[in-house]
Amino acid sequence: MRIKQVLSLAVIAAILLVTLPPQGSAQALGVSAVRFGATCSDFSLMVAITGTNDDGGGFDRFRYQILDGNGKKLYQEDAVRQVGVTIGSQVINMSYDNDGVDGPPTANPIRLQIIDLDANGNPTALLKDETFNASCLPPAAAPVTITENFRPAPFLKAFFVGETQLFRAPGRDPMDLRIVPGKEHFAFYRSPDSQWIAIDVSGEQLMWVPVSVVSVDIGRLGVSPRRIDGSDPATAAALPQPTIAPSTGFPLLGQPFGTALVTTRLRLRSEPLLRAPLITTIPRNETVIVYARNTAGTFIRVQYRDLVGWVSTCCVSLIDTRLDLLPRLE
């Protein structure tokens, strides 16, 4: 396998890998600070990545991977980054099973890797490799690269106006700990019904409290993310505005408007119609490049690897754009 010129993703974070050789020094790869932590059920990560190598359509492909000390896969996520764009991500207490049920780790160290991919999604180089001892398991015999517990970047202050217990989950698993009025803590997530928020109390896990006892701009909080990439509202960057074809008002080929996650097996079709000819089937958890939508907003035009076609909006999650921002195309 020929290792391509490293896409030199600028990485600020933590991650694992398998047998790929490192591509030079951290400085050569543009790798700076790392924040990573793990337990027996979830992990926390802060990372910022800049796309530098064009793997097709102006996007750089890469992979997040987390393994345990026995090499068991705990989590894997493929992503793309527009060349020249930096997007930050921060996940706190994200379940290993967000990509499918893999089960808990069996041994330390928990290993985090960022892997460079080629245009076909094949691994070409290890960009970052970090290890951490989860406190729920005996420590590894060999030294780990990260010894400090993960501390999230401060985001949004919540001021307590009432007293409350702390909960391990929204409305469930109360603890024998309370917060009194006048205290301030940083908030990171809200529950889907917006009745609870997750706050940092300097432990391994975020704690949940009812919105009724805090003063906070809950509209700035999102629900707990299901993916790493683009998950940090404090540092995530918007994609540059694409070039528009003057004659049609639609984006030129190679000028995407964003990316989307395929949430279930999905048919790529030649036209935005349910009975249009089938091009291929896209597996769950693949990332596609988004160019446009149809007038009804029921289909989006995407690129999957070297194939371009239409997919139903029923089974995708737009990552760094919104449906109403996409140009209409029939």
In summary, what is this structure?
With 330 residues, the chain is an all-beta fold.
Structure description:
The structure is a single chain. This protein has 330 residues and is mainly beta. The chain is 1% helix and 40% strand. It contains 1 helix and 21 strands. The strands form 6 sheets. It has a 5-stranded antiparallel beta sheet with strand order 13-12-11-8-14, with no helix packed on it. It has a 5-stranded antiparallel beta sheet with strand order 20-19-18-15-21, with no helix packed on it. A 4-stranded antiparallel beta sheet has the order 4-3-6-7, with no helix packed on it. The radius of gyration is 21 Å and the shape is globular.
What are the segments in which pLDDT stays under 50 over at least 5 consecutive residues?
Answer: 1-19, 21-33, 235-254
The ordered H/E elements are HEEEEEEEEEEEEEEEEEEEEE
Largest sheet: 5 strands, antiparallel
Q: What proportion of the residues is helical, as a percent range? A: under 10%
Termini separation: 41 Å
**Main sheet: which strands, in order across?**
13-12-11-8-14
Shape assignment? globular
Please provide the count of β strands: 21
Q: Domain count, please report it.
A: 3
Strand pairing plus helix content: what structural class?
Answer: mainly beta
Computed CA radius of gyration, to the nearest angstrom: 21 Å
Judging by the overall fold, what is the CATH architecture of the largest domain? Answer: Sandwich
**Helical stretch tally:** 1
Highest CATH level, the class of the largest domain = Mainly Beta
Mean pLDDT: 80
Provide the β-strand percentage band: 35-45%
